[in-house]
Amino acid sequence: QVQLVESGGGLVQPGGSLRLSCVASGGSISSIVAQEWYRQAPGKQRELVASITSGGRTDYADFVKGRFTISRDNAKNTVYLQMNSLKPEDTAVYYCSQYRLYNFRAWGQGTQVTVSS
């Protein structure tokens, strides 16, 4: 019912920036509790990067505070992750997710971010 599609990943140099986008379709915005970005590096578990609640409160993992910003445009059904001052350790597949009513969670397919010289 809910479809999430990420885009904006790519190869960047350390210190560079990327803006990830997640476009949602097929679901009611009124059912969203929080919109989130996760990432998963090879051989590691998926970890929460940033979230924004239905009320607009944002939270960030300590390792991205001051560097990443989550935002949304409800008119475009899109959530963004602005990634600045990227580090090699930020290399991962980044996934957007919706946490919805009744403990329902939707996932996107992921977009690769590679930070390397």
In short:
The chain has strands at residues 3-7, 10-12, 18-25, 32-40, 47-53, 58-60, 68-73, 78-83, 92-100, 104-107, 111-115.
Q: What would your notes on this structure say?
A:
There is one protein chain. The chain is an all-beta fold. 0% of the residues lie in helices and 56% in strands. It has strands spanning 3-7, 10-12, 18-25, 32-40, 47-53, 58-60, 68-73, 78-83, 92-100, 104-107, 111-115. The strands form 2 sheets. Strands 2, 4, 5, 6, 9, 10 and 11 form a 7-stranded mixed beta sheet that branches. A hairpin with a 4-residue loop joins strand 7 and strand 8 (78-83). The protein starts with a strand and ends with a strand. The mean pLDDT is 96.
Strand and helix map with partners:
Elements: E1 3-7, E2 10-12, E3 18-25, E4 32-40, E5 47-53, E6 58-60, E7 68-73, E8 78-83, E9 92-100, E10 104-107, E11 111-115
Parallel strand pairs: 2-11
Antiparallel strand pairs: 1-3, 3-8, 4-5, 4-9, 5-6, 7-8, 9-10, 9-11
Roughly how much helix do the residues carry, as a percent range? under 10%
What is the subunit arrangement here? single chain
- Give the N-to-C terminal Cα separation: 40 Å
Could you tell me the number of beta strands? 11
Rounded mean pLDDT is 96
Using only C-alpha atoms, the radius of gyration works out to 14 Å
- Strand percentage lies at over 45%
Q: Categorize the overall geometry.
A: globular
Number of helices: 0
* Uncertain runs: none
